[in-house]
Every structure is written in structure tokens, then in C-alpha cells.
């Protein structure tokens, strides 16, 4: 029995689409990995900043000064 050329073309197109989707998946996974790494780095920086802020004493508030009285 001979192969139907129409079916062969359809199978070829399907194989091409499958290969391209694999390429897209790899690109998507690479971008997701970069985003996860960047998010982890920023989270570490934020946590370090918050920890430093907790260990430091809050700055003293300047005392409010009353305006000088005018001489009459």
C-alpha cells in the first residue's frame, strides 16, 4: 500500500509544529528561570535591608522649637 501524499504533508506539518513548540518551550523556560533568579536576588536584598533597618536605632526626632516671643 502506498502512502497518501496528503497525509504525508499533514504529518510533516505536524512534526514541524511540534519542533517549533519545543523551541518555544525552551525559550519560555529560560525566561522563567531568569525571572525566578532576579526575583530571588531582589527578595534577598529587600530582606537584608529590612534586617538592617530593624537593628539600627530609629533616628531621633528633632525637638520642635517655639517661635521666639516678640518684645513689646
What would the keywords be for this entry?
single chain; 72 residues; mainly alpha; 1 helix
Give a concise summary.
The chain is mostly helical. The chain contains one helix and no strands. It has a domain at 29-54.
Walk me through the topology.
Blueprint: H1 5-55
What can you tell me about this protein's structure?
The structure is a single chain. The protein has one helix at 5-55. The protein has 72 residues and is mainly α. It has a domain at 29-54.
What's the number of helices? Answer: 1
Strand content: under 5%
Q: Please give the radius of gyration in angstroms.
A: 33 Å
Structural class: mainly alpha
Q: Tell me the helix content.
A: over 70%
Q: Tell me the number of strands.
A: 0
Mean pLDDT: 83
Assembly state (oligomeric): single chain
Taking the sheet with the most strands, its summary is: none
